[in-house]
Every structure is written in structure tokens, then in C-alpha cells.
Amino acid sequence: MFFTYLRRELRRRRKAALVVASGLALGIALVIIVSSVSVGMSKAQDKVLESLYGLGTDMTVTKAAAAQGSGGTERPRFEFDAEDDDATQSTDRVMVQGFQTLAAGTVDTVGEQDGVANAVGGLSLTVMKVDGQFKRGEFKQDESSGQSQGGPGGGQGGGGQPQGRVEGGGASFDVNSFTVYGTDVTQQDLGPLTSSRITEGRTFKASETDAEVAVVDSAYAKEKELAVGKTVTVSGTAYTIVGVSTADSGDAAADVYIPLKQAQTVADSKDKITTVYVQAADSQQIDTVKAAIQKNVSGTTVTTSADLADTVSGSLSTASDLASSVGKWLSIAVLVAAFLVAGLLTSSAVSRRVREFGTLKALGWKSGRVTRQVIGEALVNGLMGGVLGIAVGLAGAYAVTAVSPTLTAQLGSSGGGGGGMGGGGPMGGGGPGRQTASRTLDIALTAPVSLTTILVAVALAVAGGLVAGAFGGWRASRLRPADALRRVA
Amino acid sequence: MYQLKGVTKRYMRGKNPVDALAGVDLTIEDGGRLVIQGPTGGGKSTLLQMLGGLDRPTAGTVELDGVDLARLPESRLTKVRAESIGFVFQSFNLIPTLTAQENVETALVPLGLGARTRRERAAEALESVGLGDRPTHLPSEMSGGQQQRVAIARALVKRPKVLLADEPTGNLDESMRDEIMDLLDGLWKEHGLTFVMVTHDSSLARKAPRVATIRKGKVTVTENAAA
């Protein structure tokens, strides 16, 4: 009887049921879309951070920022000898990114701290290569004083100083900058290279600690027409390319990866590193580990993923803020409104059925049975709203994923502070660790719907039905059969 | 057997108290037939509600077979209504979305009977009121007389001791009125029910063996030997 009565009543009041279900559906759909977009945002942020750190890295340790003026004044210096006219000259400078290094032993010190599962060191370098030629100017003598060849300060002609001017001449140099990352080939499961996958050739072998081999990023390889088997020259040393890597998202951490020892040699930074990549034993204890390292390893700055996430700006950050603030509150407001509307409509429906429920009570139906009937109807309305809401929500999330709007993430310079490259520093940026000032990544937004989100939606549908049923049930339970029949008499 | 003693029902109309029933004493024997009549607002329906356990008096006792309905807890009063009292209303009060058979079954739901037993007894009840061929009809697909027959079947399907009818022919035309009254009289005799009916219709009152006339909350009972 319960289900027969329920079915017939819902069929009779299709429009009211549809209004209640639609209201709940709207709220539930919003919750699904906002939740899934938020998850998408979070995943996008994770991708941004992974592209910097690589998978599994919970924090990095870098040298603490030096006092202003003491560390930021170094600049690369290029010197060219006077050579034959029009001869091409080339020179390159290898600089440690940020000019701040730590002793290689720091890796072991960090690794010994409580809560540290793994620690790996790396050396980030920037190579600036300048090549081109000087061209002498041509001295042109005035017609009255004859002509003579010579550069500035050239020889003096026979009778007195020649009268004329220098024309042409100058210098044409091409500046080429690329980043090199010295990786610990014995521990390749941590560090920037883990955010890329080898798409050609192979990665380093553990035995290649001091081998002249390199892995190049696919974008750099394409630009410079490099491939496995060819060589890439860093500060005069030719490295055989053994693999080409492709960043999983955004830009790669470096253009060229070489063994750490080789990087230390070319940068003249023996036993030096720029960054220690740290994996915590327990992801819930990251703050504790950070505090321990900062306390026990002096002169270092520890940057966690959370610290770095705070520096993410751009449309990803804006959209993320929007989803977590406006989206969340809009969802809550719509849900509350939908719950209230459902409750009031159900209560109003009970008021219109006073005679019906009064009759049932006169026939001996207990208040509880009448209330259950009302709640049952409201619950079915809620579930219909839930099904409708889940369908609309899934469609919305699918649409977001299908469109995949591109969000830009800019990583701010506060992730470690200091160490700026100064006016004459290398262009382009970014590398691992704190040298993230100008790093910009484009991330395609997705809206993955998890089972948890669906379960939350179902729970909301049931809750909506129960809230509506509570309104109506309370009203029905207060009906007295005599009151109901008095309207009839 | 009903035994009412000093039954008073006081309502507040604004700030003024109004006695719908003012110290009513009344006895109705088992199997008796009583017609209650009187002017509108005189307290007829209020008295019927007291008899049916739908409302409680402000003062006095309403005993049914020695049990005071006025003092009975709500759950037990509901049980008494479910098992012992059948109601027939002026506007039929059928559930519009349920078929004739399902409407009759609603009276059996509180008794906790199985679905099959409910179906069988409902079918029998419909048969007894001449609607055995229309179990699947909705109220909207039936005439007023047929709807009232369904309501009577619903009242009797649980085999109650008492049948209370509030203006059962009030919404019917004259031919239908006689038909329904003949049916009710026949069932009363057949089942040995205690039958109490409220009516405005003097012609129906004249046919009753006992008439309670209620005016300003006071009841006067007259016996009709000719009926």
C-alpha cells in the first residue's frame, strides 16, 4: 500500500514534484560542477608544482638568501681577445643559478633529519654562450688629404695628420642562453627529471656518475636540432645525448641534464649543489620536517609545495579562488534555497491534503504512518532531484573537461626569496628550486568527478528529501482527525 | 454499548467560550440505531466526533464497552478507531489517486493484514455494496452514489462494532439517497452494528427508531415506536 499510494500521489502531483526535484537538481548539479572544477584546479596546481619539483618531492632546501648587496652583484663577464679582422669569436659562461650554493654534504645532513625519507642534491646552471665577430671600421680620408687604410689610431701618413673619418665597423654577437641541471644519476627517483618522461633513447645509468652524457629536453632538442647520438656542448665539453625527455606539463625544469659531477666540473663548483630535493616519510608531517631542517641545517631555506602553491598567480589562481569562494557559497546558497523551497512546497502540499490525511487518521492510521508516507514522497522527490542533478552535474563537468579552458599559472618569486639574478643575469628562467621568478605555465583545466562527489550528491539528495519530508511530516503529524473532518462538515 | 455522561465540549470563539456540547448524557445500546439531527452549528458533528474518538470532550466521559475514550492514550484511541469504528462521510473522503479496491484496503492497513488478505476482504466488501465489478475504478470515474458505496465498503470491511455516518446522503440526489439508505439499513441489520447517523433530512429521521435532537449543545432523545 505504501508504494502504491506513493507512486499514485507522485504521479498526481507531477508538476509540484518536478519543481521540487528541479530545485534540488540545480543545487546538486552546482555542487558537482564546483567540486569537480575545484578538484581540477587542485590537480592543475599539483601539475604546476610537479613540473618544478618532480614527482614525490615534498620540499626543497636551498641556501638562505644572502644579505642584499652581497650576493646579488655578481654578473657574468665576457672577454674577447683582439684577433684577426672578421674572425668569429665564441665564449661561454657557466653560472650557478642564483649564485648561491650549498656544500654537497648538506644532502647527507638533511637526509639524517627525522621524518626525511629521501634527499637528493642537484646543481642548476645557466649557460650563456656569446659568439660573433668584430668588424673593423673603414677610415675614409677627406678628398683634400688623400686616403689611407687603418683603424682608429692607424698609422700617420706622410705629411701631417690625415683628415677623414671612420665608417662602418662594429660587432655582431649572438647571445644564446640555456639551462643545465646536474642530476644525481644514482638517485633518479627524486628531483626535476621525474616530471619528464624519456621519449627517445634512455635515461642515465647509475654508473654514469662522471660520464660525458646528457639527456636533453624535447623542446630544446627540437629548437637546436639535437637528437640521440649527437652531442651538445657545455663550456667546451661535448656531451653525447643518450636520451630526449618531454615534460609532463608546461616547461621542463632544464634544457639539458648532465651528471651532477660533470655539472660541478663545468661550473667550477666542486662538491657544490644548489638544491636538495626532500621526500618526507609522512606527507602529513611536512611542516614538522621543514621545521627540523630549518633548525638543524643552518643557512638554508626550506620551501614546501604549500609555500610554492602560495606563490602561484595568474588565471589558475584567480579561477581557483573563484571556485573556492564564489562557487562554494553559491552552491551552498542554492542548496539551502532548494531545501527550503522543497520543504515549503511539501508543507503546502500537506495543507492541501488535510482532509485526506484526516480521513486516514480517522480510519486508524497512526500519525507515524501518515508522516512516513509524506516523508517517503519527499524522499522520492529528493532522489529524483539527485538523479537529475547528478546527470546535469556530470554533463557540466564533462563540458568543462571537453572544452578544457587553458589557465595560466605564474609562479611568484617569493618561494625562497632573494637570489635574484640582477640586471645582467640570464634571461629565461626558471629552473628548479627557488629560481622560479618568471615561470609561467599553461594548464588545461579538467573537471574530474570522483565517486566521493557522486556519493556527496546522493547524500545531499537524500538530505534534501528528508528536510522537505520533515517540514511536511511535522505538519502532517500535528493534524487531528477532527480538525480534518471539521472542514468537511 | 455507548454511555456518555456529562459530555461538554467548549471552544473559544475569540475571547468568548462556546459550548458545542453542554453536559450531554446519552446511552446507545449495542446494535442500536440512532439518528442525530438538529440545526446547523447545534453540535451534531461534535457529538459524532466524540463518539468516534476523533476529539476529546472538555469534561465528561465517553465510554464504549466500558472504556472511556476521553481518557484513552492517543495510540490506544487510534487502535479503537482502526478496529471498532467505521466512518462514512458526507463528501465520501476517498483518496483520489487510489482505485475503489485500494480505497477499501486503506481501512485494513492499520490492522496489519497481509496484502492478499486485504485484497480478498476488500473485494468481498465491494461485492457487498454492489461494486464487485469496479475494483479498478478511480473515484473520479464513478458517480456520487458509487463513491459513497465505496466509502461504505471501506467503513465495513474491517467488521467494526460501530458505524458512524455524517450526512451520508447530503451530497446525493433523492433516488441515490434512498438507495444508499436502503444499503446502510440492510448492512446494519445484516451485521448487527451500532449505527449512528447525523442528518438534516427529517424524512430520514422519521424512519429512525430513536432520534437525538441537539440544540445549543443539549440533547433530547425521542423514541419512535412506529419506525
Task: Describe the SSE topology.
The complex is a heterodimer of chains A (489) and B (227).
Chain A: H1 2-12, H2 14-53, E1 59-63, E2 88-96, E3 102-103, H3 106-111, E4 116-135, E5 138-141, E6 164-167, E7 170-183, E8 196-201, E9 213-217, H4 218-224, E10 231-234, E11 237-247, E12 256-259, H5 260-266, E13 272-273, E14 275-280, H6 286-296, E15 300-304, H7 305-310, E16 312-313, H8 315-352, H9 354-362, H10 367-403, E17 406-411, E18 440-444, H11 451-477, H12 481-488
Parallel strand pairs in A: 7-12, 9-11
Antiparallel strand pairs in A: 1-14, 1-15, 2-4, 3-13, 4-7, 4-14, 5-6, 8-11, 9-12, 10-11, 16-17, 17-18
Chain B: E1 2-13, E2 16-28, E3 33-37, H1 44-52, E4 59-64, E5 67-68, H2 74-84, E6 85-88, H3 100-105, H4 115-128, H5 144-156, E7 162-166, H6 174-191, E8 194-198, H7 202-206, E9 210-215, E10 218-223
Parallel strand pairs in B: 3-8, 3-9, 6-7, 7-8
Antiparallel strand pairs in B: 1-2, 1-4, 4-5, 9-10
Domain ABC3 transporter permease C-terminal (chain A): 331-446
Subcellular location (chain A): Cell membrane
Transmembrane segments (chain A): 329-351, 378-400, 449-471
